[in-house]
UniProtKB/TrEMBL annotation:
A motif (HXTX 2) lies at residues 115-118. This is Putative phosphoesterase NCTC13832_00660. The active site is at H34 (proton donor), H115 (proton acceptor). InterPro entries: 2H_phosphoesterase_YjcG-like, Cyclic_Pdiesterase, YjcG. A motif (HXTX 1) lies at residues 34-37. Its EC number is 3.1.-.-.
Length: 169
């Protein structure tokens, strides 16, 4: 089974982010807006309960995540992804580090850049047009996320579903 760990914001902020994603992100229906803490990793079905217990153990003592989405940014020229940048805090970095070592399904594939994706799968022209619009619109959103979500990819439905949450703080 394919799992991942993420911070999922309030419904009101999800709605705001989805306002962009509905137009600019073909993956919109597959997953809620989120900050990735652990990218997808694979586990045997038989190990699922053990993995959930390990996550609960690793999250002990982790602080709630203060999220401050500050501006639109992008991953160009590597890829045409546009996102709302989230200020990196010690609490976010700590949470990321707890789950991205060799002792828990491997190191992270990319450096930790907390963000909410709002556009992907764009042509170069679409990217330039959309990035200019989104950058001008701007964002300034703060909230506290008090739980880490375990997500499982449902192959039949072709989307991610939240299967467990772990309190922070």
């Amino acid at each position: 089974m394919i799992l991942g760990l993420a911070l999922i914001p309030s419904k009101s902020f999800q709605d705001e982010v989805n306002g962009y994603r509905k137009r600019y992100d073909k993956q919109y229906v597959r997953i809620k807006p989120h900050v990735t803490i652990k990218s997808q990793f694979e586990v045997n079905d038989a190990d699922f309960e053990q993995v959930k217990a390990e996550i609960a153990k690793r999250v002990e003592g982790a602080q709630p995540a203060e999220i401050h989405a500050t501006k639109a940014s992008n991953f160009a020229p590597t890829t045409h992804v546009i996102y709302f940048k989230v200020e990196k805090t010690d609490a976010l970095e700590d949470l990321f580090n707890r789950f991205n070592g060799e002792d828990f399904y491997g190191e992270a594939e990319h450096p930790f850049i907390p963000h909410f994706t709002i556009a992907q799968g764009l042509t170069s022209q679409e990217f330039e047009d959309i990035y200019g619009q989104v950058r001008l619109a701007g964002i300034d959103h703060k909230e506290t996320i008090n739980q880490l979500s375990l997500l499982q990819f449902d192959e039949a439905a072709d989307k991610w579903k939240e299967v467990e949450t772990y309190p922070l703080g």
